[in-house]
Design a protein that fits this description.
Length: 502
């Protein structure tokens, strides 16, 4: 009998699932595409029923169809985008669409209210973080302040994966790594909620129980089994958000490891063995006890390259791989530096290191000679410049020379990876895995005792690394000059924007 593990990850634009055996070999994969909702500027939402739960049902049913008569499914792990905020009632019914992670910037007034209430120094002491659009706490408060009817019916504020686990098992629980983003309502050093001094904001009883990601949350209920096709009684681990799951799925588990996730957005995680704080990064617990992380992120990544592909009408209906192959071919017709065209990919503001929700995308340096290839290359280089800044901030705060593992669909874009390498001087190990769902399966295997953490870390494979200087010394000089222009252009545009409102 072959024992199997399942992992399912809900991403910003796509849900992915994987079925693996207890040696890490992939038996089957499944995908489901979905979109986002942007009902107002600065708002980014998902419908929990028609996106999160419906995708899980679809993917779970497809994956279970690949299990043979001699196979036994022994564990399930789920991850999803985060930190998100979803109000549900006592029956786990969503009361409004979920408010997504840092790309949703609606809660500026609530950030100001919480800072006024506690003070920035106390918030930083408790949470290890300043309040930003990546903080879930202000978004919970936004609902309390702006949608009182919803707030009155809210029993819990769930995240994406905690909603899925609750629907599967009936237990309302979130992992510490995600709960740590509930600032200012979570105290990092003590690994617990702390709502002292915050009466009249978000009641602590609306926050779900916190546990570790590889702990078994419960088992699949009869009702969930009937919907999903999963076996009743299947153990389900607590899980985590997509980025920590992707880190686990690419062998990033030990102190000193650093993951650079090149997905719809850029997200970076560095693991340490003690709590660390930073006024420009995010601090949180790790998925396993005894470890902590500093994290950074950009607001766009793959979304920017998808945007330029759409604008250049590269879509031909034959899938993402072919689409981005055409984009890379077109970009290769423009030299390093895109003939002087610079792109700032700030379509939804920018996170690390600027934390500027009002930033917007721009092309600079265009002329009548600028062509489609220049625009295509400039966007990929701009994404690389953006992520290089976030990586530099994370390395500067953490110190030392970390092992940098790049993961996600963006590792296939050599313009992005070479820009990052040449700007920062870091080699990138390129993990060849199926993504966060693979990490979910590893967490499930650890949780049910099928594998050890060390065994799970040995599952992922790797491609040839991306190294600095692959385009020669002249290429490094050109891209570093462009990187300096990128930063100066951002600050000039910000000064012009802020001058308009002075």
């Amino acid at each position: 009998m072959t024992r199997l593990l399942m992992g399912i990850d809900i991403g910003t634009y796509e849900t992915k699932g994987v079925l693996v055996d207890a040696a890490g070999a992939v038996r089957a994969e499944a995908r489901a595409r979905h979109g986002i909702s942007t009902p107002r500027p600065g708002w980014v939402e998902h419908d929990a029923e028609t996106v999160w739960w419906a995708d899980l049902v679809r993917v779970a049913r497809e994956l279970t169809s690949h299990a043979g008569p001699g196979d036994e499914l022994i564990g399930l792990g789920c991850s999803a985008i985060g930190p998100c905020v979803l109000p549900v009632d006592a029956a786990l019914r969503p009361l409004r669409p979920a408010i997504l992670y840092g790309v949703d910037t609606r809660a500026s007034a609530e950030i100001a209210e919480l800072e006024e209430r506690l003070g920035r120094e106390e918030i930083f002491r408790r949470a290890g973080n300043a309040l930003t659009s990546q903080s879930a706490g202000p978004k919970m408060l936004w609902i309390e302040r702006n949608e009182p009817d919803v707030a009155a019916r809210t029993r819990w504020y769930l995240t994406s994966q905690s909603f899925l686990v609750a629907r599967l098992t009936g237990r309302v629980v979130v992992d510490h790594a995600t709960a740590g983003y509930s600032h200012p309502f979570y105290e990092l050093a003590e690994l617990r909620y702390n709502c002292d001094g915050l009466a009249g904001t978000v009641p602590e009883e609306k926050l779900p129980e916190a546990a570790w990601s590889a702990e078994v949350a419960g088992t699949v209920t009869a009702a969930a089994a009937a919907e999903t096709g999963l076996p009743e009684g299947l153990p389900v681990v607590v899980g985590t958000t997509d980025s920590p799951a992707e880190a686990v799925g690419s062998s990033v588990m030990a102190p000193g490891d650093l993951m650079l996730q090149l997905g719809s957005t850029g997200y970076l995680i560095r693991i340490g063995d003690r709590p660390a704080t930073s006024d420009v990064l995010w601090a949180a617990p790790w998925v396993m006890p005894g470890r902590f992380v500093l994290a950074a992120g950009t607001s766009t990544g793959g979304t920017a390259t998808r945007w330029i592909a759409d604008q250049l009408d590269l879509e031909r209906g034959d899938g993402d791989a072919a689409l981005f192959g055409r984009l890379m071919e077109l970009s290769g017709a423009s030299p390093i530096g895109a003939n002087g065209v610079l792109h700032l990919p700030h379509f939804s503001g920018e996170r690390t290191p600027f934390h500027d929700p009002d930033a917007r995308a721009a092309f600079v340096g265009m002329s009548l000679g600028t062509d489609r290839a220049d625009l295509a290359r400039a966007v990929s280089e701009g994404v690389g410049h953006s992520i290089a800044l976030a990586l530099a901030a994370l390395v500067a705060e953490g110190g030392g020379d970390p092992r940098v593992v790049a993961v996600g669909g963006g590792i296939k874009n050599s313009i992005i990876t070479r820009t990052i390498c040449d700007v920062t001087g870091h080699e990138l190990a390129l993990a060849e895995t199926v993504g966060a769902s693979y990490g979910d399966a590893i967490l499930a295997g650890i949780g049910v005792g099928a594998i050890s953490e060390a065994e799970g870390a040995g599952w992922p494979g790797f491609l040839e690394p991306a190294t600095p200087g692959a385009d020669g010394d002249a290429g490094v000089r050109e891209i570093r000059l462009a990187h300096d222009r990128f930063q100066r252009t951002y600050w000039a545009l910000r000064a012009a924007r802020e001058g308009e409102h002075a």
